[in-house]
Write a structure and sequence with these properties.
The protein is mainly α. It has helices spanning 33-48, 53-58, 67-111; strands spanning 5-11, 27-30. It is elongated.
Length: 115
Amino acid sequence: MKPALSKLDCRRPEKATDSGTKPRRLLVHLTSEQNAQDLLSSAKAILRKSHDHYIASAVYFNPDLTAAHAKLALEQHQRRREAKTAKLIRGEVHQQLLPALRICHFFEHSANGVV
C-alpha cells in the first residue's frame, strides 16, 4: 500500500532533543480521509509481519487526534493492557493450581476407596 501524500507533505511535530534516545513522531498528511483510514486499518497487520524486528516491534501508525481524544485513547489502551495482564495472571495461577487440584482429587478418591 502506498497512499498519496497531500501538498502539506510530512513534518515532525516535536522538537529534537539532545538525548536522541527516542525517535520523534512523524505527522503524515494524505490526500483523503479514506486513504488515511485504509492505511490505519492495514498498517498493524503489515508492520507486525515485517522481517525487520525493529519495525515489527517499534513502528506504529496512529490517527492524528486532538488532545482530548488522545487522552481517551490512551486510557482505553491502558485498560485493555491491564485486563490482558490480569487475564494472563489468572491463567498462570490456574495452570499452577491444576497439579495441586489433581493431587487433591486423587487423594479424595483414594480415601474413599476409589483409585
